[in-house]
């Protein structure tokens, strides 16, 4: 929502700049008013499309203001240049006022910068008062670790609050086993306190020689959904002038957590999800009504089956399916996967599961914003707790919304996972989807699912 508001604000400032410039340059009468209006509308549309490509809408938390302002200026000048070049090629440049274009460019730069500076200052004051702070745990060793901790403590306006500081002891090659054990115990305390302290990020402020400690930290926190960041001591390495992946509280930072979908792609994907889900529910409503009647007649019980699953960032939600099994009392804390010739499955349910028609109610989840049309399939929470310990990167699947269909499913990885190797293959395909996501890949998965994805021998 914040990104949508920021984009709407940029479009509004663009159009406001055009109106003020026209008033200053032309007064009451604008020559060729239709052309000037169309040009302003085209530029506003280009702002909506081009600005995200300049990383204009990245989070400001912990980042200095001036690089953001420079990117904003570069983006606006690029938009005006491209729009003017397009009009020039179409032969309409002679009808546009050069004085108006120049005034508009300058005024809009001023408006865009002013709004950014105002909001940035407002956010810093708000966070300095203790609001909207992201909880952080810092793990490290040595003088650099002390400096990072001190800088963060004294800079609440950056948007971070330290809730835990852990100083390691076993950072050298000569560390004894008792020191290593103490470090492992400290890391376990951090791991166990993540939910209780609402920790969103863990920063590793370690010297360059502490590879073993770094690996222990990564291994200890791999099965969580926190953002794990390495803050390297680049001054000690003599590379402080080199490019930086991130900059937090004035320190270079390298993200060690897999990157979820690019911010500029999330909005488009969510719009597609809602529109596609609404159209699908409308088009499939007669079929779904017929299925509901068949389910109700096949055995006593409700039409829909609801189960708690994990969604984006591990937040639980209730997933909807057409009920395909007879009502039975499940074992406490145990979720039995459906097996071939499972006696719990009704005759109608067997057909629904074979054709995946039991998944159709999940378009309701998509419409509610809990799922996506395409994404990693959500598993039972009990299975999550089992596999997160066994499969590296398993929890990274929840850095995006779960999907009705996914890359793993269209590649044949669906149904029962009676062996851990089957789940490993499914997770590998899900992680491939995260690393290679594009809107084109989503469309490919949707069309593949429609053409051949609804019938599979693995589903029963």
From TrEMBL:
Location of this chain's protein in the cell: Membrane
InterPro entries noted in UniProt: Bact_transf, EPS_sugar_tfrase, Undecaprenyl-P_gluc_Ptfrase
Cross-referenced Pfam families: Bac_transf (PF02397), CoA_binding_3 (PF13727)
GO MF term list: undecaprenyl-phosphate glucose phosphotransferase activity
Transmembrane segments: 37-60, 72-95, 101-123, 271-293
Domain Bacterial sugar transferase: 269-452
Cellular-component GO terms for this entry: membrane
Mode of membrane association: Multi-pass membrane protein
EC number: 2.7.8.31
Enzyme class: transferase
Record key words, sorted: Membrane, Transferase, Transmembrane, Transmembrane helix
The keyword Nucleotide-binding belongs to this UniProt entry's keyword annotation: no
Signal peptide: none
Main location: membrane
UniProt similarity note: Belongs to the bacterial sugar transferase family.
Protein name: UDP-glucose:undecaprenyl-phosphate glucose-1-phosphate transferase
Organism, scientific name: Paraburkholderia phenoliruptrix
């Amino acid at each position: 929502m914040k990104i949508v508001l920021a984009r709407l604000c940029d479009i509004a400032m663009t159009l406001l700049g055009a109106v003020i410039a026209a008033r200053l340059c032309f007064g009451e009468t604008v020559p060729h008013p239709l052309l000037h209006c169309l040009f302003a509308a085209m530029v506003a549309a280009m702002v909506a499309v081009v600005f995200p490509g300049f990383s204009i809408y990245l989070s400001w938390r912990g980042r200095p203001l001036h690089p953001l302002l420079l990117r904003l200026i570069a983006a606006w000048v690029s938009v005006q240049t491209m729009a003017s070049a397009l009009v020039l090629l179409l032969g309409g440049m002679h009808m546009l006022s050069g004085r108006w274009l120049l005034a508009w460019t300058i005024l809009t730069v001023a408006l865009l910068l002013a709004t950014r500076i105002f909001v940035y200052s407002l956010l810093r004051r708000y966070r300095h008062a203790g609001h909207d702070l992201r909880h952080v745990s810092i793990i490290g060793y040595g003088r650099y670790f002390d400096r990072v901790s001190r800088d963060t403590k004294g800079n609440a306006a950056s948007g971070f609050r330290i809730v835990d500081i852990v100083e390691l002891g076993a950072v050298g090659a000569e560390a004894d086993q008792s020191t290593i054990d103490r470090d492992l115990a400290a890391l376990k305390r951090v791991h166990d306190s993540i939910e209780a302290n609402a920790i969103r990020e863990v920063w590793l402020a370690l010297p360059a020689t502490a590879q073993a400690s770094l690996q222990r930290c990564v291994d200890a926190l791999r099965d969580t959904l926190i953002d794990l960041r390495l803050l390297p001591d680049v001054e000690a390495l003599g590379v402080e002038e080199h490019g930086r992946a991130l900059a937090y509280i004035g320190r270079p930072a390298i993200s060690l957590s897999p990157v979820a979908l690019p911010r500029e792609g999330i909005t488009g994907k969510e719009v597609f999800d809602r529109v596609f889900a609404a159209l699908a529910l409308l088009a499939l409503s007669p079929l779904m009504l017929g299925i509901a009647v068949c389910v109700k007649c096949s055995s006593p019980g409700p039409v829909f089956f609801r189960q708690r699953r994990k969604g984006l960032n591990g937040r639980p939600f209730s997933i909807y399916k057409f009920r395909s099994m007879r009502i039975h009392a499940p074992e406490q804390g145990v979720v039995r996967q459906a097996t071939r010739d499972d006696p719990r499955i009704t005759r109608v349910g067997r057909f629904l599961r074979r054709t995946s028609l039991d998944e159709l109610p999940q378009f309701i989840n998509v419409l509610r914003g809990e799922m996506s049309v395409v994404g990693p399939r959500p598993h039972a929470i009990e299975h999550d707790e089992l596999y997160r310990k066994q499969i590296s990167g398993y929890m990274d699947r929840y850095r995006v919304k779960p999907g009705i269909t996914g890359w793993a499913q269209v590649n044949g990885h669906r149904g029962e996972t009676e062996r851990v190797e089957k789940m490993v293959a499914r997770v590998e395909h899900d992680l491939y989807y995260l690393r290679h996501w594009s809107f084109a890949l989503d469309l490919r998965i949707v069309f593949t699912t429609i053409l051949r994805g609804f019938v599979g021998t693995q589903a029963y």
